[in-house]
Design a protein that fits this description.
Pseudouridine synthase, 8 helices
Length: about 290
């Protein structure tokens, strides 16, 4: 979940795909225009305005930025998303439009596939490259064999403690709200499942990997824990979501596509509600009441 899924990352990264790195420019330069769509009362949704729209989220945008942009661009009444991606992350963001918003919680519960980069030698407060450095340790003594051995421990059913910069609620407060005030509290570990964890590249201090994981898995926490298991420390420096349930990044459009085209284009790229329900049922992912 990262990141992370709230209603926060089987096609892995294509061979030769360039990993995206954090852009340190001001976030405001990357957000969609606040008044991009037509003004006035929201248009009543047509039958083909209910469904799923897959977006390739750009770096520095929040998931909420994308939701607001699509809503304003086409003056839509209901738009939501199925699993948060943090500003650092890129890739598949599943948007639900109109009546499909009722499915958001169900769709967010499906497994995810991510590619990510672990950078050893530095730990941060947020466990990713956006946070302040809190610890530095040597990494030069670590071998590729040791990296592969430690990674192999993180496959299967595990428990994981959510980071303070997550949307998990404790005592009615979201952890990230407390973290912004400099408050850190005890958190209970939660069960997760990592179905597969494949190392794609070892170029220390960096390790690129792809994982298939359950809802609630924090990739940043995985990077943090592996760094310490290797006798050093580490943080997540890149994250890209490739799949969420039955939905694939290859079928997503960009925010530029939405900005530069009309509502009919958006409709042509949507998965209609009826088609989505049929697809989920065929995959055995549709829960019966």
């Amino acid at each position: 979940m990262d990141s992370q899924e709230t209603p926060s990352e089987a096609a892995p990264a294509a061979s030769g795909e360039t990993r995206q790195r954090p852009d340190r420019g001001p976030r405001k330069d990357f957000r969609g225009p606040r008044k991009d769509g037509p003004r006035g009362r929201k248009e009543a949704p047509a039958d083909d305005d209910h469904g799923i729209l897959l977006i390739d989220k750009p770096m520095t945008w929040t998931s909420h930025d994308v939701v607001n942009f699509v809503r304003r661009r086409h003056n839509l009444a209901k738009v939501g998303h199925c699993g948060t991606l943090d500003p650092l992350a890129t890739g598949l963001l599943v948007l639900v439009l109109g009546k499909a918003t009722r499915m958001a919680e169900h769709l967010a519960a499906e497994d995810k596939i991510y590619s990510s980069t672990l950078t050893l030698g530095k730990a941060t407060a947020s466990y990713d490259s956006d946070g302040e450095i809190t610890e530095e340790k040597p990494w030069e003594q670590i071998t590729e064999a040791e990296v592969r051995q430690v990674f192999s421990r993180y496959i299967g059913e595990l428990t994981q403690m959510p980071p303070m910069v997550s949307a998990v609620k404790v005592g009615g407060k979201k952890l990230y709200e407390l973290a912004r005030k400099g408050i850190e509290i005890e958190r209970a570990s939660r069960p997760i499942k990592i179905t597969s964890l494949k190392i794609d590249r070892v170029a220390l201090p960096e390790v690129d990997f792809t994982l298939h994981c359950s809802k609630g898995t924090y990739v940043r926490t995985l990077c943090h824990d592996i760094g310490h298991d290797l006798g050093s420390c580490g943080h997540m420096s890149a994250l890209r979501r490739h799949r969420s349930g039955v939905f694939r990044l290859e079928d997503a459009v960009t925010v530029d596509n939405i900005r530069d085209n009309d509502r009919d284009y958006m409709r042509s790229k949507m998965v209609p509600l009826a088609t989505m329900l049929t697809r989920l049922a065929a995959a055995g992912l549709l829960k019966k009441d």
